[in-house]
């Protein structure tokens, strides 16, 4: 049996806390469901701060686990692997930046693509990933966002995303 214990809406993220019981198992499990509504259409670029907010919300759920046991995280999308793959890569690479102060962009993309072929098969999603990484690096202090070069890079990436989106098929 699954029972919704609570739900909370914060911007484009809704968090549900569920309790799962099984008639053959005396224990009870807690399941956290994060629903992100900030990127509903493939053809529309997400607000990067909202996408990074989803990462932080997922990490907060991970940290709230009082058990020493690590539980899996399932990332599920409704239309293939483009958006979910972009999110997964953003999560992996932002954690690398947080823990090591650097990242392995191409290595991570290739590793994820070896499991899900269509991830990063479109330049548009790679550009979104780059924008997310740039903003996150500034958020954690690896990049000085007061410098003009930061603003130039951010504008360049956004302009490139707009141009690339116009070329992409709506599939």
TrEMBL record:
<dbReference type="InterPro" id="IPR029021">
    <property type="entry name" value="Prot-tyrosine_phosphatase-like"/>
</dbReference>
<dbReference type="GO" id="GO:0004725">
    <property type="term" value="F:protein tyrosine phosphatase activity"/>
</dbReference>
<dbReference type="InterPro" id="IPR000387">
    <property type="entry name" value="Tyr_Pase_dom"/>
</dbReference>
<keyword id="KW-0472">Membrane</keyword>
<keyword id="KW-0812">Transmembrane</keyword>
<feature type="domain" description="Tyrosine-protein phosphatase">
    <location>
        <begin position="1"/>
        <end position="136"/>
    </location>
</feature>
<protein>
    <recommendedName>
        <fullName>Tyrosine-protein phosphatase domain-containing protein</fullName>
    </recommendedName>
</protein>
<dbReference type="InterPro" id="IPR000242">
    <property type="entry name" value="PTP_cat"/>
</dbReference>
<dbReference type="Pfam" id="PF00102">
    <property type="entry name" value="Y_phosphatase"/>
</dbReference>
<feature type="domain" description="Tyrosine specific protein phosphatases">
    <location>
        <begin position="49"/>
        <end position="127"/>
    </location>
</feature>
<keyword id="KW-1133">Transmembrane helix</keyword>
<feature type="transmembrane region" description="Helical">
    <location>
        <begin position="123"/>
        <end position="143"/>
    </location>
</feature>
<dbReference type="InterPro" id="IPR050348">
    <property type="entry name" value="Protein-Tyr_Phosphatase"/>
</dbReference>
<dbReference type="InterPro" id="IPR003595">
    <property type="entry name" value="Tyr_Pase_cat"/>
</dbReference>
């Amino acid at each position: 049996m699954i029972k919704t214990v609570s739900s909370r809406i914060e911007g484009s993220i809704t968090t549900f806390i569920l309790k799962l019981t099984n008639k053959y198992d005396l224990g009870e499990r807690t399941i956290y469901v994060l629903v992100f509504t900030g990127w509903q259409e493939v053809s529309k670029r997400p607000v990067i701060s909202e996408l990074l907010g989803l990462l932080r919300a997922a990490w907060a759920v991970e940290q709230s686990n009082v058990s020493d046991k690590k539980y899996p995280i399932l990332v599920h999308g409704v239309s293939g692997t483009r958006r979910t793959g972009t999110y997964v890569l953003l999560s992996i690479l932002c954690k690398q930046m947080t823990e090591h102060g650097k990242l392995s962009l191409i290595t991570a993309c290739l590793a994820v693509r070896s499991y899900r072929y269509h991830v990063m098969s479109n330049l548009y999603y790679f550009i979104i990933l780059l924008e997310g990484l740039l903003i996150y690096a500034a958020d954690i202090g690896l990049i000085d966002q007061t410098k003009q070069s930061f603003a130039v890079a951010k504008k360049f990436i956004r302009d490139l995303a707009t141009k690339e989106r116009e070329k992409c098929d709506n599939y």
